[in-house]
Amino acid sequence: MKRLVVLVGLPGSGKTAFQQGHPEWAVVSKDTIRRGIFHTNFAPEYEDVVDRVFAATLVEVIASDAEVVCVDDLNLARDVRAELIELAQLSGRETIAYVMSFEPLDRLFARTQRVQESLSLADPDLRVTALTQKRFDALASSYDPVDEREGFARVERDTLPADADAFAIPSLQGKAHRRKRIERREPLPLFVP
């Protein structure tokens, strides 16, 4: 059965590192949209457009032939996950949640800071907006614990690899590797009636 994988976790918890370990997955990510279209890691003034592009892209990718579609985003709120579960059910996909480690929070925040620093060094054209401690704490406090009763077929926990720090920090070499992998894929039929 085709699956929708929903990653759940704070910034720095290893979501992107985890999905990068599965190159066969079709990944839909708001971070990729922000960087690709707006050349920034986060800008509140663009978030409405990011949300619309993300939703349209997700609908198209879920309707594709991809065996596994992965949503690489925070997905902290139960209502956000409910929308993803409903979309998966409408398309006949089994929905699986992978919940990243939420502890210790200070380590996650420090990792996020290192990733942002690496982003700014790896891509000088990218405008990197710092994630403040206050915003990080607000995200942490907004988390609704994941429960199979939400409609997930399965919930996996603590999937953070031991070497997540190495994977989470982008490098120029990794960026080139991802670009090659994408060039070899067939384009998805986006926005075709």
The CATH superfamily is identified as: P-loop containing nucleotide triphosphate hydrolases
> Into which percentage range does the β-strand content fall?
5-15%
The end-to-end span amounts to 25 Å
Oligomerization state: single chain
CATH class: Alpha Beta
Q: Class by helix and strand content?
A: alpha/beta
Give helix % range: 40-55%
Low-confidence stretches: 161-193
Summary of the model, kept short:
By secondary structure, the chain is an alpha/beta fold. The protein is 46% helix and 13% strand. The longest helix has 18 residues.
Strand and helix layout:
Blueprint: E1 3-8, H1 15-20, E2 26-29, H2 30-38, H3 47-62, E3 68-72, H4 78-90, E4 94-99, H5 105-122, H6 133-141, E5 154-157, H7 164-168, H8 172-184
Parallel strand pairs: 1-3, 1-4, 2-3, 4-5
Written description of the protein model:
This protein has one domain (3-184): 3-Layer(aba) Sandwich (Rossmann fold), CATH 3.40.50. The two termini are 25 Å apart. 23% of the residues are buried. The chain is built from eight helices and five strands, in the order βαβααβαβααβαα. It is of the alpha/beta class. Helix content is 46%, strand content 13%. Strands 2-3-1-4-5 form a five-stranded parallel beta sheet. It has helices at 15-20, 30-38, 47-62, 78-90, 105-122, 133-141, 164-168, 172-184, and strands at 3-8, 26-29, 68-72, 94-99, 154-157.
